[in-house]
Design a protein that fits this description.
single chain; about 190 residues; alpha+beta; six-stranded antiparallel sheet; 8 strands
Length: about 190
Amino acid sequence: MESIYLITMQTETYVAKVIRFFTKKPYNHASLAGDAGMRELYSFCRTNPKFPLPATFNIETQERFSRFQSVPCEIYEISVTVTQKQQFNELMRHFIDNREKYTYNSLGLGYMLFNIKRRSKNKFVCSQFVAYTLKRLGLKLKKPVSLCTPDDLRFLPESKLMYKGELQDYFTGKTPLVSKHNEPIPQTNN
């Protein structure tokens, strides 16, 4: 068996704060990674971290998040077959090689807010991209791709919570443990 990783997080951008105001959910951004080290996170997001647009498919690295004081996140491991892992790698290579053909689905945010199912060709928000990828790998979703939010992705039956805490702490190895029941184990101060 192989693994891919789903990351849901809450950043401090203005857009993220507005989305959180409307959704009242703990996380507003979703990404995928092919390795537990999170060397590269794949998502649809702003191209320049300082400006909300333009936005498209991007590879997010640790440095991209270092400008934030706090990035609460949850990281889920999803077990996949060797074939599914190969499909994942091929799909990410497709998005990397064809990045100019894709754009951010700005209208999709509004459709999601009002629960309107509408698929836009070659346009994704972060959670639609993640849902699309997982569906292409054969995972079952409880909602149509166009309506999947970062919060919906947190409850996939195939996923196992492996980390909950600050993203920078994960990157630096200060990882809190998680129990078998996907609950954080309280940290003690020694």
